[in-house]
Amino acid sequence: MNKKIIIVCLACAISLSSMAQYNLHVEGRNLKDSQGHTIVLHGVMDTPSPYFNDYRWTKWVPELTSNNIPACLTYFDKLFSAITDTSQGAYCDAFRLHMDPCWTNDPNKTATNGGGENDISRFSESRYEYYLQNLYVPLAKSANEHGLYVVVRPPGVCPTNIYVDGDYQQYLLYVWDQFSKNTYIQEHAGVIGIELANEPVNVLNADGSNTANTLHDFFQPIVDKIRANGFKGIIWVPGSSWQANYTGYATYPITDELKNIGYAVHDYVGWYGSDENNPNVDGAISQFKSQVPVVETNPIMITEVDWSPQVANFDENDASTYHVNEHGEKIPNNLGTWATGTTSNWGNAYKKLIEHYGNISMTLSGTGCYIDIDSYINNNKVIPAFSNKTGGDEACGVACFNWYKTYAEENMERINYVPTTEDLDIESITASSNNFTISVGSNAVVTLISHAKSGKEEEITGKCTATSSDENVAYYNGSRIIAKEQGACTVTFKYTDTNGKTLTTTVDIHVPEYFPLTNVGLNPSIYGNGFFDETTGKLQTGQYGFGGWKFASGLDLSAYDYLTVELQEANTSWGLSFRLFDSDNYWSNPYSKTFDGKTSITINLNHLDIEYEDANKVKQYRTVDPSHIYIAGFWTMGDSPIYIKSITLTKKATSGISQLDNNEKDEIASVKYYTVDGHEVNARYNKGMKIKKITYKNGNVKINKCL
Description:
By secondary structure, the chain is an alpha+beta fold.
């Protein structure tokens, strides 16, 4: 997020002093302390920056030096005391520390990429190493001494595009290599975690493409470097799209021998299908699972979130009434947070979301979003942020004062529970289901539960091992069952309890045809809200909607030549088409073939040639790769339902090929448009009939009339 506007709201999360004695680790989808108690953390984020700290510990200076360190440390020591002062109602138990680049950038260097927080051109290795030892680590130590669990993020924010094997990956490798070798950090890995990056936007392969494994390939080498250095603490892994997209990890999770991986997520008003005007709890829960599927397998920490009510009339033509967020959206002015909303609406919906999953920790986006900093600095009084302002009772400060106390009490109840002998005597283990039907290229989460003699039940997924009777059909990747090809197999899960007793349970896996026409297999709401009836084959999408299939690990159709799609009856709705995406991004450019009123179309999988315009409106041509199809299905206007009969894959020209134009087998060389009197125009010309001339690489030419 762009922090230039917000001074009030930059803070991190901290752990209760009574809990600091316990080292935290990941166990399945939960955080656990050293005694095995489930813990959920709550706190704030902050950054040691004179600007963002409102110049409370120093006036403006052209360069920060070692002389500024004592005042900065003293200031943060006061903040840590305030946010953990339970006698005054503050119950933070986590702190997110930003290693602010105002210390690590060389002021004598000239910025070459704009000079913002996402510009690493002035980064100085020598300054980083000095301030790591003399500022950042002492800040983490001070937070620990106040009972706070610390999550540390690297200096600055990610550039818009970051690449596997690119400069920014190398930058992060250096930053975390130095950090994870620090003696104090290694010795206190149970109370210090690493958040690998802040708000990646587009994470790309070295060639600029994006595939399901891209996030894994970018962050896995950094995890490996940290572990090779001996750091054993929790590593919090970000996603893309400003830390709101984690779909690639469902199939390609970060691997770690210690199994000590969590995922760091951001959430603001308007994200995950819930906003101030429509605080849709059920929709947000569903959308969060769709965008952050790792919530089912790993602990989550929302490391940025805040809200406060609108304070003035909003006029999109008056820049004084709004600020612009990272998506370019105009956000109405509020009491001093990044997002605009109220606790009664969006805030309470957000609370229900995190409580629904039960494994989501959080840190507000600033200390000033939790407490009134000046009240404490000047009067030693801890009061909720914005509580002395009109509308402050609807802001995140007051809400989180109440929430954090309740959550802290729940943590302590779990910590104080003493298991009985019968609690430890496990009689059986069961899976969330004994039968799964998973389409090729998709996956399913299995939850394992232990059943004790006392009747106590506990999730043990993270403690189980698994073997598949046929890994060519399906296998367990440590968090999910991945379907590879049609067939059936059995996955056996094994668990050994604290008494050394080994127990097992089995799960039967069925992998059906590639495009199952079932309510479970077909998703009618990939875009828009639709529905599908497996008994009739009826698919109704939302307006301009898309329904079909998503393949998290990519569907390989390269062994086939043709894909034939048949409808039960003709549909004349404009633009009805079947589309194939070789990217797991719905907004990428797919191959598309329209029905044009026909009941059947056949797609030549060897020539998925497309024409599109890039961001600069320049016409481009490429071929969709059938070896990794991530999304397939129907685009409709949403004005009438379609009735699907079948989807068939064939090799060689065995059926339906007579419907193909011979030119479809050849690659496109160029596409040009002309007016009816012969003048060349662009594709967007809309003043009447156009002539479309397609020239193929074999020399053939095809001419059509179009609007």
